[in-house]
Amino acid sequence: MDKRLFWSIQQLSGRFFLVDQFMILLSKRARYVYMFVVLLKWILDGPQRRTARSATLSIIVAWLIDFVLRRLCFKARPFMKQKVGILIPTKADSSFPSKHTLLAFAVSTAIFLRNRVWGRILSYLSGLIGLSRVWVGHHYPSDIVFSALIGAMTGMVVHQKTSHCKEADS
């Protein structure tokens, strides 16, 4: 099922120039949107700064999870096992987890739990980032789904812990 879904997406890749360019843009540059939102919230005071702290901590924890998972369970990227048209070059490291997707969902979930509007926008963007990673030939759909779940859980746990610490300080 995973490979079948991968190939159904992959067969569209390289056929539509504008869609390809949009997917490449998402895959390479969407992280700057998250950085901008977190930085903007950090500059603002009060609850906005707490949101930025939660999002930043979510990034750190998600990055550590990515670091550990890549060393524990290697999964060959699609282009390493078969001929796949990749739109942008990448390292021949583990396909799971998708660091882009993991980090995007960790941040968007952390923000969503404190600010529904910004969180919803970033969650949609996170989904598009995940799709772009399959589109450019770097990941299988299962890599994206599980990375999104781990990222979302990371954002939820960090939110819960930071909310609990805030209550204890009060």
Could you please describe the fold and organization of this structure?
The protein has 170 residues and is mainly α. It has one domain. The chain contains eight helices and no strands. The longest helix has 29 residues, at 141-169. The model has no long low-confidence stretch (mean pLDDT 92).
Nutshell version of this structure?
The chain has one domain (17-169). The chain is built from eight helices and no strands. The chain has helices spanning 2-10, 17-29, 31-43, 47-72, 78-81, 99-112, 116-135, 141-169.
Distance between the termini: 50 Å
Number of strands: 0
SSE order: HHHHHHHH
Quick check: average pLDDT?
A: 92
Shape: globular
Residues in β-strands, percent: under 5%
Computed Rg: 17 Å
In total, the number of domains comes to: 1
The helix content, as a percent range, equals: over 70%
Residue stretches low in confidence (pLDDT < 50, at least 5 long) are: none
Number of H/I helices: 8
Structural class: mainly alpha
**Main β-sheet description:** none
